[in-house]
Specification:
Layout lengths: L4 H20 L17 H19 L5 E4 L5 H12 L3 E3 L10 E11 L2 E7 L3 E10 L2 E4 L4 E4 L2
Parallel strand pairs: 1-2, 1-3
Antiparallel strand pairs: 3-4, 4-5, 5-6, 5-7
């Protein structure tokens, strides 16, 4: 059976996402460094962050924990922090909280690939990934959401 060029591209993106996830997955409780290219426009970063946080909320519950976010100073990192707060999450970037607070370390990765970007959010328990078509005006999902649960 022959695959269409679009399906072949999607399959390639999925394979790359899995490879990147395998390379970047750290031991339980270890937060990897976040990374997003600075050339992703503000509207695109906001669209991706908002959509990915809504998917994260489906997995961990909206506003149920304090998110420890290691930022890289990119537009996406700032948009992600804003989206998390919009969904009711408390966000700490200095990793200091009051005792008894439930902390969920969160890292992100944005990787350009074949005219699209692959976005990934990682916690100790779940990883979400999705490809997006990006324009200066925003971003639209170009693949289904990939969800990987640990433990």
């Amino acid at each position: 059976m022959l695959l269409s060029p679009r399906l072949r591209s999607l399959a390639g993106a999925a394979v790359l996402a899995l490879v990147l996830a395998g390379c970047q997955t750290a031991g339980r409780g270890t937060l990897i460094a976040s990374d997003a290219p600075a050339d992703v426009s503000g509207p695109a970063a906001s669209a991706i962050a908002g959509e990915m946080v809504s998917r994260l909320a489906e997995q961990v519950g909206p506003g149920t924990a304090t998110i420890a976010l290691k930022q890289d100073g990119s537009p996406f990192g700032e948009a992600l922090e804003t989206a998390l707060k919009g969904w009711g999450y408390a966000v700490v970037t200095d990793q200091k909280t009051e005792g008894g607070t439930s902390i969920v370390p969160l890292a992100y990765m944005i990787v350009p690939f074949e005219g699209q970007v692959l976005a990934r959010l990682s916690t100790a328990d779940v990883e979400l990934g999705r490809a997006y078509s990006v324009t200066a005006a925003g971003a639209t999902p170009a693949s289904p959401v990939s969800v990987m649960r640990r433990g």
